[in-house]
Amino acid sequence: MNRLKTITLSCLALCFACSACNTQTKEKELTVKEALTVRHSVRTFTNDTLTNKELTDILWAANGLSRETRRTAPSAINAQDIELYVCTAYGVQRYEAPTQSLEAVTDQDIRPLFMARNKFVLSAPVNILLVSDLKKFGDRMPDEAALRFAYIDGGIVSENISLYCTSVGLGTVPCAPPLDADTLRKALNIDEKHLPIMYHPIGWPEE
Q1: How far is C-alpha 174 from the chain's CA centre?
Q2: End-to-end CA distance of the chain, in Å?
Q3: Is the separation of the CB atoms in 121 and 203 below 8 Å?
Q4: Residues 71-97, mean pLDDT to the nearest whole number
């Protein structure tokens, strides 16, 4: 009886995964459980661009304002240290969570600065760069702890991006090769207390 139950549950799980894959379209959003089932890394993208609403929805899911002073992503001591930079061929914009808007940073295409090991990033219409503002931790913890929590907070935001993209049919992959922090800081006009952590190329997956 237990063996039959195990086989039945396994079959149901397989059917569920296949069903989720078949319903993944631009029009139908997946549930969290469905997104967890079919989530995978995507490195090839179509030439289709993202609309402003599609982009801001991704950013809100990543680390937007969910209510009053809270974000969609938790952070150590609620520091809300992770900043999001939208990088395209036309420049960089910083996501402003309180107003759900984008602020122009530079018209420089900085994607080549972090494509050394991942040349496919240029084929994605958007790359979202995650940067931790270590100043947000203040004097409440030593520098070593702040660095540790910065990477943890970045990982949480990264997972939000992955799951949301999967839920709406978009493709992405978290990328964290060694980044030239000083060069990126100069390009983005940010100080040394900002730590570039990782980035997500995002686009519609190539079939």
Answers
A1: 7
A2: 41
A3: no
A4: 96
Contact partners, residue 33, CB within 8 Å, separation at least 6: none
Query: Up-side HSE of residue 63: CA atoms within 13 Å toward CB?
Result: 25
Contacts of 39 by beta carbon, 8 Å cutoff, 6+ apart: 162, 163, 166
Report CA dihedral (143, 179, 40, 30) to the nearest 10 degrees. 60
Of 133, 166, 169, 167, the C-alpha closest to 150 is 133
Backbone CA torsion sign across 159, 178, 108, 119: negative
In 26-81 the beta strands, taken as DSSP E runs, fall at: 65-67, 70-71
Mean pLDDT calculated for residue range 62-74: 93
Average pLDDT score over the chain: 87
What pTM was estimated for this model as a whole?
Answer: 0.85
* Tokens standing for residue 35: 């997104």
Higher pLDDT, 10 or 165: 165
Q: Give residues with Cβ within 8 angstroms of 28, minimum separation 6.
A: none
199 forms beta bridges with: 129, 175
- Nearest residue to 171 (alpha-carbon basis) of 199, 200, 198, 197: 200
pLDDT for the residue numbered 26? 53
Distance, CA of 3 to CA of 137 (rounded, Å): 52
Coil vs helix vs strand at 93? strand
Rounded to 5 degrees, what angle do the CA atoms 106, 71, 69 make?
100
User: Is it the case that residue 8 has pLDDT exceeding 60?
Assistant: no
